Structures are given as C-alpha cells and as structure tokens.
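Worked Example 4.2. Consider the chain below.
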Amino acid sequence: MGIDLSSIKPFEICSIRPPTENYSLTFRLTRNCYWNRCGFCPAYKFASRFSKRSIDAVKEDVRRVTLIDALLYEQGISSTPNSYARYSRITELVHRIKTAQKETGHEVEGDREEPPEDLHPDLVWFLSWFKDKPDLTDSLNHVLTWRMAGGKTCFLGDADSLIIKPEFMTEILDEIKDKFSSIQRFTVYGRTKTAARVRKLEELKAYRDAGLDRIHFGLESGSDAVLKFMDKGVTKDEHVEAGIKTREAGLSCSVYVMPGLGGTRWSETHAHETAEVLTKMTPDYVRLRTLQIFPQTPLDEARSNGDFAEASEEQVAKEIRVMVQETDTDTEILSDSASNLLSINGRLPEDRSAMLGEIDQYLALSDRDKLLFSADSRLRSFVGQYGDLSEDISGAISPYLRRDRLDFSSASDSEIEGIIRLIRAKLMP
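Applying the procedure from the previous section yields the following structure tokens:
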C-alpha cells in the first residue's frame, strides 16, 4: 500500500541561508532574527516577528520531510534522469495531494502570503524568494533539490541558531541523523556576539559533539565605527573572540565581509580594520558580499538624508584589494555572492598575487571600460542566478541589442549606470 497522499504537509524552510547551503535540506529552529536592527539588512524587516520553535514542532517538520522524501522515491521522481522532468512531475503530484486532502477533509496548509501593499517594488521582488510559510510545491521542490544534489548537507536556521541550547541542538540533530543517514555536514548561521558573550567554550564544543560542523558568521566589518553606524550590535573585539572560540571548539568558521559597508566616509578604515580582524580570527573561509542598499531600510534612509554616501565600484574594488593584501592568515577567500562585481577566489597566502592581479586588471581600465565591465558582469550574474532576464531588464537593454549581442557604444555613461543599478537592485546578496 502506498503513502497516503492526504498525509503530506508542507514544512518550514530556511529561505535565507548561505550560498553554500542552497542545495541543503533545511529546518527552522527559530523564525527570523531577534536582533533585526542592522541598517543594511532587508531580510527580516518585513517578515514575521522572531520566535523560537519547540522541539516537538521541529521534530514534526522532520517527520514531514521523511514522508515527502519517501513519496518522491515511491513515485520514482528522485530517480528520474531528466531534471526538468522531475520538477514537472512535482506540479502534477502536488495537484494529486491537494485533491486527496480535499476528499478527506484535510485543510491544505502553507498558502502563499501577499506582500504588504506599501512595499517598494524592489523589495517585493526580493522577498518573493523568501517565504515564511512555504506551500506544498516549495516543500516538495526543496526536498527534491536536496536529493538531486546528493542529500549530504543540512542547514539549521534562521539567523542565529547559537541561541539554541546545546541540549536542544543535540536532540534535533540526533533526530535528523536517525532519519537521514546520508547527511554528512550540518551548518548554522550565528552572531559573533552570541558566540563571544553568550555561549561558553564548553557549549560550543557540545554543538560540535552533537554533530554540528560549521558556523557562518555575518562579520560585515572589522571597524567599530562602521559596526556602530550600522547598529550591528557587536564590536571588533567580540568578532575576534567569537572566531577564536569557534576554532578552539573544533568547529569550522566561515565569515561574511561586506565591501562597501563603510561608504565613502569609512572606506579605508573599513578595509584595513576588517583585514586586521580577519587576521586575528583565522577563519576557514572569508566570503565577500558587496553592499547593496535596499529600499525602506535604515541605511537607505541614511543615504537619503545625507548621513551615508555610497562607495563607488572602484572604491569597493580597492577595499577588497586591501583585505586580500593585508589579511595575514591561512584562509580561503571566496566571491560566492551575485552582489560582487569581481570574482576573487583563492587561498591565502599562496594565491594572494593572483587575486591582486585580478583586481589590478579592473582598476587599470578606463572609466568607460569599468562601466562596460560592470554592465556585463551584472548581466551575467543575473542570468546565472535566475536563469533568464526579467522583463524590465530585458526592456532596458533592448535598445542596445544588435543581432542578439549587446552594443553600448551609443549609450551614455548615465544610461549604462541606470541599467547597472536596475540589475543590482534584483541580485540576491
């Protein structure tokens, strides 16, 4: 007898997660962000309020995923050779599930939410990819994507899973490992403030003993002036303490830095002091995520009233150069965010010269060629992230298409800058 289709329910997915966890199975231990004050961040400003989930609620999600995984296997979807055919079959399967639920009188959960009416169009686009209440299609596609990627990784969210006590984490990880033996890596987001001031070293070690492998920290900057202005709620010394404790606990440490976050005022300070903090933290990975100012955020308001002046792309490139040049530790630098203009990847110290060479090639371009480089880079990032151009971007570049090739020779600098801004506003950081 097959799986009862009416028993299939959606589960809570961590829509916001590190790029390296895009194909991971995810479970929410908490909802959203309890700090939620960072001036640059739009991620949780317009979603539901922060809350902790109970062990029973998380275990129920594990049970739901177990059923979905078994159903995909039973239906032969997990083993279908063609990826497009797999996702096409999900649509048909969801229809069958909903029909079965209606026939048995079960309420269909996880209906999509409508964005607030006063939300800026750029934020409507951004938040359309992040759902507090995933539906059946989201849930089945999530499990299918994880299985197609090998079924080896799991991310536990949302914004700071270090506020979860080790006993809770241990019980949940034991449950997940019992149901999904293929998982080989467990990761979380964490605040450096929590690692430095809330969790003792013994508690971080307890996370490791439970099966946690890596913590992703949003470092953003090593400058106290920048951190204070952005209301990050942490100091550079706490950044350093968090990194050291994480490594001592036997956990992998991955940090995100945000070139451009200092604006024009603190550009040099931001770059030099971030390199200093990275050197002291000795993280395994340093991930670059260039600042993008989103509408209706505190930083957008600061820019509007003149309290913040956005750094140019050339200034941002120079900041990255300083970070690569001055970070004096064994670490890997990765440009795995669509927000980045340059693709700077390599290990320090051995790849330092090659990375600096990539940056210097860009800096040596003329102003016009820098614009053309940016337009090309941003378009490729957009297509790489979404698979195709959006209608408004296609319309913006259509006057410059010549036999399916872009030719900006007739475009003014301001017109190219407008296209770049349009694309950047829709790139996921």
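DSSP finds 16 helices and twelve strands in the chain. The longest strand covers residues 214-220. Compare this with Example 4.1 before moving on.
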